[in-house]
Amino acid sequence: xxxxxxxxxxxxxxxxxxxxxxxxxxxxxxxxxxxxxxxxxxxxxxxxxxxxxxxxxxxxxxxxxxxxxxxxxxxxxxxxxxxxxxxxxxxxxxxxxxxxxxxxxxxxxxxxxxxxxxxxxxxxxxxxxxxxxxxxxxxxxxxxxxxxxxxxxxxxxxxxxxxxxxxxxxxxxxxxxxxxxxxxxxxxxxxxxxxxxxxxxxxxxxxxxxxxxxxxxxxxxxxxxxxxxxxxxxxxxxxxxxxxxxxxxxxxxxxxxxxxxxxxxxxxxxxxxxxxxxxxxxxxxxxxxxxxxxxxxxxxxxxxxxxxxxxxxxxxxxxxxxxxxxxxxxxxxxxxxxxxxxxxxxxxxxxxxxxxxxxxxxxxxxxxxxxxx
Length: 373
What we know:
Elements: E1 12-16, H1 28-38, E2 41-45, E3 70-73, H2 75-78, E4 87-90, H3 94-100, H4 131-165, E5 170-171, E6 180-185, H5 189-202, E7 208-212, E8 215-221, H6 229-250, H7 261-267, H8 298-306, H9 316-328, H10 338-344, H11 347-357, H12 363-371
Parallel strand pairs: 1-2, 2-3
Antiparallel strand pairs: 3-4, 5-6, 6-8, 7-8
Helix pairs in contact: 4-6, 5-6, 11-12
């Protein structure tokens, strides 16, 4: 608490119930005690996991919630409500009123105070009627119907987890919670990264990565009401098939032993600076894992690097950057060096290269965003 610069003070702590990477949970009781001691606002982010708390058996992670000042979750993630929809509860709405309440003459009317006016709870004065679609879902399915949906998602995740554990080539580096399973191929990170790229390139399923304590993992999450046992088996068979093809091509044999992180770094100089791991997973530059395959064409990258030249007009810093790229042989994050790419070959060639390797329509948006850098 004494680490803040002079003149600043702590005001808020955000605890997470169900992290994005592995659906991990903070200890609300411990965090809450600290917040009460130092009079800090405790907000709880339960974006994904919050929907599961409709089932009593999953409320074990809510222990200590009484110490929180606010909690928010997204019904659009797992409660059959389409995007976007977020719910939030506050212990004392007066704190919001004191912060956001504005009453110029043009906002005053004879019915003021007769109903809750949410313009005093937030920065904007108006908002869309998102609650209506949530109301229809609750009316249509009821509490029991929604609980059945959540429990089915968890059951299917358990089924997928069992399939992964039964295959000696894979490991699950983080405990499964609720409907999310994170898995990877045993061994070096590049194996799992290549697997993700191929899965997305084939287009039969969409895989999203995460990084857990230096390990590259694939997140498998079940949220749809239409997902069935057959879908789980189909997805798993696809993963097994692509993995077998990949390991055969690379002539890799998976052994049942843990590979220390230190050994991974020593064997692969590019560890930690690959196309995805060069940035935090799901950062704005990456957007999602499907773009990992956009620039995965050796001939295109070779053309890019061949077109990079060092000129006497370049600054010393620029010359060091170019030499570093050409000499290291690492697969850097291409978006962070788009200025060099555009200098190396014409924009039309870059765009054509992207379009020929794109696997989603959004790649055009990536090109337009990078073109102006």
